[in-house]
Design goal:
Blueprint lengths: L14 H10 L15 E4 L4 H17 L4 E6 L8 E7 L8 H12 L5 H11 L9 E6 L5 H14 L3 E4 L13 H19 L8 E4 L5 H12 L5 E4 L15 H7 L16 E4 L6 E6 L5 E4 L1 H18 L8 E5 L5 H8 L4 E3 L4 H8 L4 E5 L5 E4 L8 H9 L7 H15 L3 H5 L7 E6 L8 E3 L4 E4 L3 H9 L6 E6 L6 E6 L3 H19 L12
Parallel strand pairs: 2-4, 4-5, 6-7, 6-8, 11-12, 11-13
Antiparallel strand pairs: 1-3, 2-3, 8-9, 9-10, 13-14, 15-19, 16-17, 18-19
Helix pairs in contact: 2-3, 2-5, 6-7, 6-12, 6-13, 9-13, 15-16
The structure holds 2-acetamido-2-deoxy-6-O-phosphono-alpha-D-glucopyranose (16G) and magnesium ion.
Length: 530
């Protein structure tokens, strides 16, 4: 009990309603949930109780913040279609406050018979005033499990009598269609800013967009109507109804991890033509093109950060603001070493642990902070004081400064390319990526892996870091690090080196070390791939 001695929940606690609804959404006994890097994420078929409880939690978070609107997104991003997930978004569009991640995990795991009393204690101890209003806006991606999970979530809201607003695609075109006007307003605002930013520039050739058969397809189709000929789109992988299509052999994660274009675009892409891939919930962006020699070249989050940061630096300099406006870049350990070198020679660069929330926070330490993960998550954050400058003002209209929106990032890239009159090949030549490889290692307990120095070094298992370093030192321009995933039950190994074969070999060897150290199942030992 807290020292202030609050013994009871303030305001009404509808325990019977909560119990009745909770009985409709029992927690499976053998599943343990955890609120990870991007919320709860696992098989869609075991998430019903979690969604119900997240409905309650979102309503409570809103009450705690005096009725400010909380966002909830039901998605598993780039994961396969059978997965699903849910994450909460705080009122300014930032990730849920870390302390509440812990509350979310606690509530999700409370056994059915204890749920109502656990909830009561939580509300009392967190001093939530139940008489406060609560507002929650929610949406989902196109996964088949989404529809029933939304119902479970809505039951959570109803059990507290909270107000929810469905901004999801499942109301589109129906009588309950809601929030259309504000969504249109968003496209309007972005496309107007885009038009102003590229006015007077040469006509922009068509851009191929791989929509990952996900929700980005709907958004891109709408945005195309607003942009018209200013930026013509050629949309691919827009099928959101055929089962199994989502993120399957397409999308930003496929491209980044397999380092090749979606098979559906082979034969479509012309030499030099700009193409990009979104992921299932359209917050990642990966650009690429086929060069004159028919090689596939990727313009990943690091290349995007470089392009955008150099543009912003130019604008700030032209406006005579270099002395007062500090521009910086934030990356993670996954950033290609060549990008870090290129950027560090020109700007302050900071490295944070993986996950948008860490990067976003670090970016706010600069006046203008550009952050992109290599995997394509990111955005620039531009401050109010830079509105003195017309372009910077239009930029703030264009970019989404809170949570990732791959389409606004894409428009930003197109603006910079138009201003610099860069082709994809010229953009690519800013620096040459070091060959790199990412390997997943299946281990019995990934939580045994703890890191420090923005995930660049392992603290435990003891002694492993020294062995990794010993290996890395044998490779020219070698670099490798190991971290537990926050979204999958695996440990990830990243390696880069001066030559493709060396990067592959180093990744395989470090993967083997990790595997042997962790005592994994021999049938799942990483296979040689070089
Ligand atoms: C999530 C994160 C992303 C991060 C990725 C790492 C958000 C919105 N997304 O997708 O930033 O790069 O997880 O996944 O926070 P991992 O921990 O499995 O490597
Ligand atoms: Mg995503």
């Amino acid at each position: 009990m807290s020292s202030a001695g609050v013994l009871e929940v303030r305001g009404p606690f509808p325990s019977e309603e909560i119990q009745a609804y909770s009985d409709l959404h029992p927690k499976p006994r053998n599943v343990v949930y955890s609120y990870g890097t991007a919320g709860f994420r696992t098989l869609g078929s075991v998430l019903d109780s979690v969604l119900f409880r997240v409905g309650i939690l979102a309503a409570l978070r809103s009450k705690k913040l005096d009725g400010k609107t909380i966002g909830v997104m039901i998605t598993a991003s780039h994961n396969p279609e059978e997965d699903n997930g849910v994450k909460l978004v705080d009122p300014r569009g930032e990730m849920l406050e870390a302390a509440w991640e812990h509350h979310a995990t606690l509530l999700a795991n409370s056994p059915n018979e204890e749920f109502v009393s656990t909830l009561y204690d939580f509300i009392r101890d967190t001093r939530i005033d139940m008489s406060k209003p609560s507002r929650v806006v929610y949406a989902r991606d196109t996964r088949p499990s989404g529809e029933s999970l939304v119902k479970a979530f809505e039951d959570g809201l109803k059990s507290l009598g909270a107000e929810g607003r469905d901004a999801a695609i499942n109301t589109k075109g129906t009588k309950e269609e809601y929030g259309e006007d504000s969504e249109d307003g968003y496209y309007q605002k972005m496309s107007e800013a885009f038009r102003k930013l590229v006015s007077g520039r040469p006509r922009i050739p068509p851009l191929v967009i791989d929509c990952a058969n996900g929700v980005g397809a709907h958004a891109a189709q709408k945005l195309a109507q607003y942009l018209g000929e200013t930026l013509p789109f050629v949309l691919h992988n827009t099928d959101t109804v055929t089962p199994g299509g989502l993120n399957h052999e397409c999308g930003a994660d496929y491209v980044k991890t397999s380092q090749r274009p979606p098979p559906s675009l082979i034969g479509v892409l012309q030499k030099g033509q700009r193409a990009c891939s979104l992921d299932g919930d359209a917050d990642r962006l990966m650009y690429y093109f086929i060069d004159e020699r028919n090689y596939f070249l990727m313009l990943d989050g690091d290349k995007i950060a470089t392009l955008v940061a150099s543009f912003i630096v130019d604008l700030v300099r032209l406006a005579g603001l270099s002395d007062s406006v500090r521009v910086g870049v934030v990356q993670t350990a996954y950033a290609n070493g060549a990008s870090t070198k290129y950027l560090s020679d020109r700007l302050p660069v900071k490295c944070t642990p993986t996950g948008v929330k860490h990067l976003h926070h670090a970016a706010e330490q600069f006046n203008i902070g550009v952050y992109f993960e290599a995997n394509g998550h990111g955005t620039p954050s531009t401050p109010a004081q830079s509105t003195a400058l017309k372009h910077l003002r239009n930029l703030t209209e264009l970019v989404n400064q809170t949570v990732g929106d791959a389409l606004s990032d894409m428009l930003l890239v197109e603006v910079v390319l138009a201003h610099k009159a860069y082709s994809a090949a010229e953009w690519n030549s800013l620096y040459t990526d070091l060959p790199n490889r990412l390997v997943k290692v299946h281990v019995p307990n990934r939580h045994a892996f703890k890191t420090e120095d923005a995930e660049r070094r392992l603290v435990t298992p003891q002694g492993l870091q020294a062995k990794i370093e010993e290996l890395v030192n044998r490779y020219e321009s070698g670099r490798s690090f190991v971290r537990p995933s926050g979204t999958e039950d695996v440990v990830r190994v990243y390696a880069e080196a001066g030559l493709r074969s060396q990067a592959d070999e180093l990744a395989y060897r470090v993967g083997g070390l990790v595997f042997d150290e962790a005592g994994g199942d021999p049938s799942r030992r990483p296979k040689e791939f070089y």
